[in-house]
């Protein structure tokens, strides 16, 4: 009998998890509480309980070539960064291409997931679902939790003295849909995540005044990076990663510091982060909106008064009418027993961000509970490829590292009032390579240099697009090489609309590349 796997949720992670189950010959059943796929990326005008909420203007922060599932490139005419409707369209095409929909039960909520009495031997789970008010029990061999973490708003009002006296309106960024609510008002946005900055920028077009309060600042990256190329195609390359990881810590931080300050000096804009870690926000408008006085950056909130706010390090009150709390989300798995996935201070104890560290059998996995500095789709797909092979008992580096090496991941935050971002922002490329090496799908650049030098150079110097992880190993895809060599064509096609696009890529000539490689080899051998 085939192994039966329950997949909770039909968003990005749930779709790719279901497909990976099918690839491995498992039998997935995906439970989705709403009536359609897409999760976070399916916009609805009304806010639904326990579902993520999107505002209409949301555009992906990562470019389409870096955000594609590894065996399904985006259509070439799609824009480089995707409005939410185009991203949803891509997910629909993906589901159709791989026949995922027939494995999804819509309008079905997972109520509870409990270990069976003989769990230590079988690793099986009792899963209770509810549809149309009727509950059903199922037995599954394994469970993939793909329910995301952006629906339980974190609004720590106790961290904001005087909020009970405030007479204006306030709400969490999850409630935001349209900027007209800010018309002519004095707006305060608390917190500087992606949503907070997006909302501040949109508000400033109609509001009388917009202030952003941030206790720790943030690096601000623009989607349009060096020479107008997408930020992640420049930032997430094997060469850049090698340089960042080879340098001593302070030098590596200095390099990143230099790169992000090239666009504008963060200190002059009141944004320089206090901490040393790299926690960027993606927004194309913020610097110019600060420069034109539409948005003012202030330190953390000290207290609220009836119609005003007082900031730390500044005595005067600033009058405000409306507050948006962009204070993030809490991690919650209402259907799991607390003992199975421990969440403390927004920190889950998971091996490689996936497997609960203390279960006797590795038959429960959590996908997408990670914030990489890069696209989330290929990451959840790689997690699913690894996990489904473990479920199936294939060689995939788990004799049981889950128990030999219970790594505490995430980071414990000193105080709940200062936290904003719950998961360790991890090194995207390093994490992808690690999981790929577990299943034997990590490309070898030296090996390729002899067989296919042009591909090897493109892989090393070019962006680390997800197709690299389909060149070898289980699930390798014959279209991967072509997808890698044409990645810049698909990037340039939607914007080179006035002059015909030749297939140039922003890469140095072969001669320079070879020279550089020889230099690199010389350095390596000298040391």
List keywords for this structure.
527 residues; alpha/beta; FAD/NAD(P)-binding domain; 5-stranded parallel β-sheet; 17 helices; 24 strands; FMO-like
Would you give an account of this structure?
By secondary structure, the protein is of the alpha/beta class. The chain has three domains: 4-151 and 330-431, FAD/NAD(P)-binding domain (3-Layer(bba) Sandwich), CATH 3.50.50; 155-222 and 263-327, FAD/NAD(P)-binding domain; 446-526, no CATH class. Helices cover 30% and strands 18% of the residues. Strands 3-2-1-7-22 form a five-stranded parallel beta sheet, covered by helices on one side. The protein has a five-stranded parallel beta sheet with strand order 8-17-9-10-13. Strands 4-5-6 form a three-stranded antiparallel beta sheet, with no helix packed on it. Helix 1 runs parallel beside helix 10, helix 7 (238-246) packs across helix 8 (249-263) and helix 10 (376-392) runs parallel beside helix 12 (428-439). The longest helix is centred in the C-terminal third of the chain and has 17 residues, at 376-392. Belongs to the FMO family. Its main location: endoplasmic reticulum. The chain crosses the membrane at residues 507-525.
* CATH fold descriptor of the largest domain: FAD/NAD(P)-binding domain
- Sheet with most strands: 5 strands, parallel
User: In DSSP terms, counting alpha (H) and pi (I) runs of 4 or more, how many helices?
Assistant: 17
Percentage of residues in DSSP E strands: 15-25%
Q: Fraction of residues in helices?
A: 25-40%
């Amino acid at each position: 009998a085939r192994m039966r796997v329950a997949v909770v949720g039909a968003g990005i992670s749930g779709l790719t998890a279901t497909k990976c189950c099918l690839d491995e010959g498992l039998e997935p059943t995906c439970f989705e509480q709403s009536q359609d796929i897409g999760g976070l990326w399916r916009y609805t005008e009304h806010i639904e309980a326990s579902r993520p909420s999107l505002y209409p203007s949301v555009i992906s922060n990562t470019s389409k070539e870096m955000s594609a599932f590894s065996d399904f490139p985006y259509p070439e005419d799609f824009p480089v960064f995707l409005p939410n409707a185009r991203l949803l369209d891509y997910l629909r095409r993906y589901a159709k291409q791989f026949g995922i929909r027939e494995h999804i039960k819509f309008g079905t909520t997972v109520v509870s997931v409990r270990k069976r009495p003989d769990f230590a031997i079988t690793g099986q789970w009792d899963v209770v679902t509810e549809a149309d008010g009727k509950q059903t029990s199922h037995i599954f061999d394994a469970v993939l939790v793909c329910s995301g973490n952006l629906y339980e708003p974190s609004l720590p009002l106790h961290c904001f003295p005087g909020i009970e006296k405030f007479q204006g309106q306030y709400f969490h960024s999850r409630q935001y849909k349209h900027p007209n609510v800010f018309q002519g008002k004095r707006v305060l946005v608390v917190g500087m995540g992606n949503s907070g900055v997006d909302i501040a920028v949109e508000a400033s077009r109609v509001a009388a005044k917009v202030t952003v309060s941030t206790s720790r600042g943030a690096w601000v990256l623009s989607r349009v990076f060096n020479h107008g190329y997408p930020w992640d195609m420049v930032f997430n390359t094997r060469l850049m990663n090698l340089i960042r990881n080879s340098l001593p810590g302070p030098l590596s931080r200095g390099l990143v510091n230099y790169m992000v300050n090239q666009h504008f000096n963060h200190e002059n804009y009141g944004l320089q982060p206090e901490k040393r870690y790299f926690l960027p926000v993606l927004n194309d408008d913020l610097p110019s909106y600060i420069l034109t006085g539409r948005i003012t950056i202030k330190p953390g909130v000290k207290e609220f008064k009836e119609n005003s706010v007082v900031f730390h390090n500044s005595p005067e009150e600033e009058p405000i009418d409306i507050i948006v709390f962009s204070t993030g989300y809490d991690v919650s798995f209402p259907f799991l027993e607390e003992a199975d996935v421990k969440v403390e201070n927004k920190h889950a104890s998971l091996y490689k961000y996936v497997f609960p560290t203390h279960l006797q059998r590795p038959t429960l996995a959590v996908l997408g509970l990670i914030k990489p500095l890069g696209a989330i789709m290929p990451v959840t797909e790689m997690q699913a490829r690894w996990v489904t092979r473990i479920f199936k008992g294939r060689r995939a580096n788990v004799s049981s590292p889950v128990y030999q090496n219970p790594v505490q991941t995430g980071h414990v935050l000193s105080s709940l009032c200062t936290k904003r971002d719950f998961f360790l922002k991890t090194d995207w490329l390093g994490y992808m390579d690690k999981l790929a090496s577990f299943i034997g799908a990590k490309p070898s650049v030296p090996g390729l240099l002899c067989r296919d030098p042009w591909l090897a150079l493109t892989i090393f110097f070019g962006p680390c697009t997800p197709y690299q992880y389909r060149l070898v190993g289980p699930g390798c895809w014959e279209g991967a090489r072509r997808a890698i060599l044409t990645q810049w064509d698909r990037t340039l096609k939607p914007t080179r609309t006035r002059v015909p696009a030749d297939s140039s890529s922003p890469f140095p000539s072969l001669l320079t590349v070879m020279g550089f490689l020889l230099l690199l080899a010389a350095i390596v051998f000298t040391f």
